[in-house]
Amino acid sequence: MNKQLSKNGQDSCIPLVREIAERHASRQGPLLPILHSVQDELGYIPNVAVPVIAEVLNLSRAEIHGVITFYHFFRDAPPGKQTLYLCRAEACQAMGARKLEEYAKEKLGVDFHETTSDGRFSLEPVYCLGNCACSPAVMIDDFVYGRVTPERFDSLIDED
Amino acid sequence: MSKGKVNVFVPSDTAARSLGSEDVALSIEKVALDLGKSVAIVRNGSRGLAWLEPLVEVEVDGKRHAYGPISKDDVEGLFAVGFLEGGKHPKGLGPTEQLSYLSNQSRLTFSRVGIIDPLSLNAYQKHGGYEGLRNALEMSCEEIVDVVTESGLRGRGGAAFPTGIKWHTVLRADGEQKYVTCNADEGDSGTFADRLIMESDPFVLIEGMTIAGLAVKATQGYIYLRTEYPLAIQVMNSAIQIAKSEGLLGDDVMGSGKTFNLEVREAAGAYICGEETSMLESLEGKRGIIRYRPPLPAIKGLFGSPTIVNNVITLATVPIILAKGAQHYKEYGSGRSRGTLTVQLAGNIKRGGLVEIGFGKTLRELLEDFGGGTATGRPIRAVQAGGPLGAYVHPSQFDAPLDYEAFAEFGAMIGHGGLVVFDDTVDMAEQARFAMEFCAVESCGKCTPCRIGAVRGVEVIDRILDGIDESGNLVLLSELCDTMIAGSLCALGGMAPFPVQSVIKHFPEDLRARK
What we know:
Chain A is an alpha+beta fold. Chain A contains eight helices and five strands.
């Protein structure tokens, strides 16, 4: 999933996107659940999904595009194998998050919103994981780690 | 002597997991098996004593004994000293309830947190759960609202609006369909009370929302829950499924013939969606752009219908008020701030965690008696109270009582109860700059003072630090703050300058040209 799918590759997801959109369409306010569901399945929301969702919900493409781009969590390109969320908020700052951020960027060789050249990690900023008494905090996919020193950071990314 | 299984409690909330509680639980299971010891591992929530996590407890003669913080490497040693019988160990802390951090609290909203298995409905009910709803089912809508009003409960999300008055407005508003929405987009740094309760005692939120539904005749509830809390989403969803299958949600709540349905809606990482109208837009499937008020959500909220919007802690406090009465709750607190406040000690603090106490304690008592000073052992230089939009409080203000009005008097706010502690190595100019940067990243873009002002704020601070017309830019920064406060539609642009102003006022020595 670390390479941008070709147009044909993207097209192959259309039936799945349609199925997801139709499954949620009768709910109240179905768009966010649909977008989450698509991103859960595909890792991102491909551009070709936009007109499909628009058609099912009878909305314009612009409206769907507008929602996808408003929320930090939704992405329109495939992420790395794992996504690393680094907390940048105040409680973590108080415990060295700024240094950790520098360290992580240097170590992975990427800036925020980028993916490492080997496709293993995407690096994303996050503003609070709710682990503020055990700062600094990092989330890798769905798992939160506390008191992350640079050394602990190394052991986390070398784990598998 | 009977050879029953010994109950061993290993917390499973995000904080405990983030420090290795999964490995600890596995290790206890394995060593017990190797030694032929019969243990029943209960995955409780967390007691909220984050600095002791993973906090392992053993039940001996009906009393729980604590050991912490435990890593997987400690487990063999624990068995070696006979911790299953309460044996002494360097990390032994004695009976859990006698830990002063806990015994000095007044846990009402958090009375079950860390004690029970979050998904055991049986344990929830054994510890007083669903008494509030049972009482509410015997009451009229007006009576329920009156009890909540009488208790003095105010919105715990930050705005501190009287909950009963909000409910009263929704009850009186015309509408076929009404909604109860729970704002669980706990985005303020330094706050984790919502997460802790959803992960540790999810049924209390379900019960509170059900009571709210009965009170205002709303049949549908939504929990708008941040995507950054995957575990809370999972626990809440499981609890809702259990409540449904046990007839506590659905078309016949507790056999009363009344309907209340509840659903979790996952947010998508926009801080602004913690603002109530923005949250409603998001629930409707739109960009989280804030709405003009009026109309108030209580009159025209979700899908244009009368809607309660309350924070997690507010709704989770309703069951105990209905169970024990308004008077019981009201007895705690000071002045017009009644009941308990859930303080979250965060950042650079030695004993970080959750402290639920009656309003009125001073900041110093919290930071020193509970918190024990900084984690680094250095002096405290500043405390940010009430999230990223809250002022940095100077040590000279630490004797202020925790009370909504007392804090407002000196330009600070309690907000959601988060206290983020910084030691004397903090660069306050960086903190002021971050407040503006954060506002720029998270602005919904609707109004100019916030959208443009925050960007300009970062630039002006950079110019000050670069030594470009320092005094002129300081004046400009103050005026920019005033403009944002006066001209923004919602709290993001309207309050993001508060931390900046507090730095200008209390830490001016940091906000000057660097060599």
